[in-house]
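Following the same procedure, the fold was encoded as tokens, giving this record:
***
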Amino acid sequence: MPVRYLETTAASGARNLTWVALNMHEAESPVRWAINKTGNGTFAADVQITLDNILDSTVSAVPFVQATVNVSATTATFNAPAAAVRLAITSASGHNSITFRVVQAGN
């Protein structure tokens, strides 16, 4: 089952976007993420993954940094098994609109 996710948010300070559940049955399927920033501000963020089941409300997901980002547009792919991925904005100033896209191919 493919996973496709898109979120655009205004960012003027630190915050975490929602975890995006990945298809664990396709754990070796590449996950492609992309970040695009518009606006006149600056930002820094971490793309985080977790091995924990985010669909279980009794579990607190432990994040691991997959990549650190501080440019206006970037994209990358990872093949590591992961249960979920999210964008954690670690700092932002000015007026920013940040779009986070996630695609995981699958059968």
User: Anything to note?
Assistant: Residues 3-104 form a domain with the Jelly Rolls fold (CATH 2.60.120.380). The chain has no helices and nine strands. The CA atoms of residues 9 and 74 lie 16 Å apart. The radius of gyration is 14 Å.
